[in-house]
Design brief:
Zinc Finger, Delta Prime, domain 3; alpha/beta; five-stranded parallel beta sheet; Rossmann fold; elongated; 3 domains; 57% helix
Length: 333
């Protein structure tokens, strides 16, 4: 069952005996679990009928015994297991799932991994529970995710602001949502969020950020690239080298993929990379400035300086700012 369907059913008070929430992306798992925790029972009912266990501190058999109890002065009880991935095995669940209590809603949060799909337990979980696998949103999907989430909240956001947030916050959806929610509080509903809003309220410079650095590199604008790099060097805490190398790798990897597309038309690029027309045209122009051979060389440069920034393959005597300057010089020349 997908996320939207689960939340829709819960909002209609359609409940199931067991929810097994698993996968790499914790954001959606937390959303479902928190919704059940906050909304299924009234405040008066929660005192006797809502129990939260943590995998590291709980005995699975005790949890199952609790799940077999009857609710007190309520139609249902809610039992939530957080960090269930800390349990060594889940085989004990098979017996409970064969005949789960109809008066218990058992929620198991099994984050960052999933049960081996080849096992009998996996088959039983998928058959006898609301089984939800939370897939990780990849770096290149984050701008599209930000745009969709913003629209759902009654706002819009322009491409520059979207990319600034994506580059600065990465693929941590909880962090992305927290920062967007700050903007929603401070900016009137219906507003188109732009770079000025992001700069003022989140603290990302609209002129000196990784989005502008990738633009400068794409245009082979040596002067602008050096201005940005010098700004980064003077503010290493706000622009750590590993974050910069991650953004650059993603950007050049997309260019590399472009060169091997069978159809390099604007429409094909828009479809492949989920880009609006103006950004697709700009991207095509940038990709053409770098041959596949040069991009392959750039991958090696980025890897080299990422390792040096992490203290490997380096004496440690060179500052992160100097490493960044060297890396950008080699990329551009």
């Amino acid at each position: 069952m997908d996320f939207e369907k689960i939340i829709q059913d819960l909002s209609k008070k359609i409940y199931h005996p067991v929810y097994f929430l698993t996968g790499e992306e914790p954001y959606y798992i937390d959303q479902i679990s928190d919704y059940i925790e906050k909304n299924v029972l009234t405040e008066a009912e929660k005192g006797f009928n809502q129990t939260i266990f943590y995998g590291r501190d709980s005995d699975p058999l005790t949890v199952m015994e609790s799940a077999r109890r009857f609710p007190m002065m309520a139609n249902q009880q809610v039992i939530i297991v957080k960090e269930a991935q800390e349990w060594r095995n889940l085989e004990f669940l098979q017996k409970y799932l064969a005949a789960p209590s109809k008066t218990t809603i058992l929620v198991i949060n099994y984050k960052y991994k999933k049960v081996d799909g080849r096992t009998e337990l996996s088959k039983i979980l998928k058959k006898n529970t609301v089984y939800f696998e939370s897939m990780k949103v990849r770096d290149y999907q984050i701008p599209q995710w930000i745009d969709k989430y913003t629209k759902e909240k009654g706002y819009s956001i322009n491409a520059q602001a979207t990319q600034m947030l994506a580059d600065f916050l990465g693929d941590d959806l909880s962090k992305v949502v927290n920062e967007l929610n700050k903007l929603f509080i401070l900016v009137p509903k219906g507003t188109t969020i732009n770079a000025d809003h992001v700069e003022k309220n989140i603290g990302i410079s609209k002129d000196f950020n990784t989005f502008e650095l990738t633009n400068a590199l794409g245009a082979k604008d040596v002067y602008k690239a050096n201005l940005i790099v010098n700004y980064f060097a003077s503010n290493p805490g706000g622009n750590p080298m590993p974050a910069v190398t991650a953004v650059l790798f993603t950007n050049f990897n997309r260019m590399f993929r472009y060169h091997f597309l069978p159809d390099k038309s604007e429409g094909a690029v828009m479809s492949e990379f989920k880009l609006p027309p103006n950004i697709a045209r700009k991207f095509i122009a940038e990709a053409k400035r770098y041959s596949p051979t040069k991009i392959f060389e750039i991958f090696g440069i980025i890897r080299e300086y990422d390792m040096k920034a992490k203290g490997l393959e380096s004496s440690g005597e060179v500052s992160s700012g100097d490493l960044l300057r060297e890396m950008i010089f080699k990329i551009l020349h």
